[in-house]
Amino acid sequence: SRRLDANHLSRLPAGSLRGVAGLRHLWLDDNALTEVPVGPLNELPALQALTLALNRIAHIPNGAFRNLSGLVVLHLHNNQIQSLGDRCFNGLHNLETLDLNYNQLSQFPKAIKDLPNLRELAFHSNRIEMIPEHAFRSNPLLKTIHFYDNPIRVVGKTAFQNLAELQTLLLRGAAEVDFLPILNGTTNLESLTLTGTNISSLPQDFCKQMHKLQVLDLSNNHIQTLHSLQGCLALEEISLQNNELKAIGEDTFQYLAFLKSLDLSENKIQEVHPHAFLTLRGLSKLDLSSNGLSWVPTEGLEGLVHLKLGGNPALIHLNPTQHFPHLRTLEVPFAYQCCAYGYCETPVSGQNQWLSDGEDIQKRDVQTYLGQPDIYDLDSDEFFLELEDDLKLQHTVHCTPTPGAFKPCEYLLGSWMVRLGVWFIFLLAISTNAVVALATFCSCQRLTSLRLLLGLLSLANLLTGVYSGAMAGLDAATYGRFAEFGARWETGVGCRALGFTAVFASESSIFLLAAAALERALSVRRLSRHGKAPSMLPAWVMAGIVLALAVAMAALPLFHVGNYGQSPLCLPLPNGDSSSLAYLATLVLLNSLAFLSMAITYTWLYCSLEKEDPLDPSEGAMVKHVAWLIFIDCVLYCPVAFFSFAGLLRLVLVEPEVPRTLLLLLSPLPACLNPLLYLLFTPLARQDLSHLWKRLVWRHYRGPEDAGCDSSSTVSAEATQLSSDPLVQEVWKPLWSPGVRLVPCQQSRRGGGRGSCDSAYTDEEGSVISDASSEQLQACTRACFYQPRG
Question: Coiled-coil ranges per the record (predicted)?
Answer without folding.
Answer: none
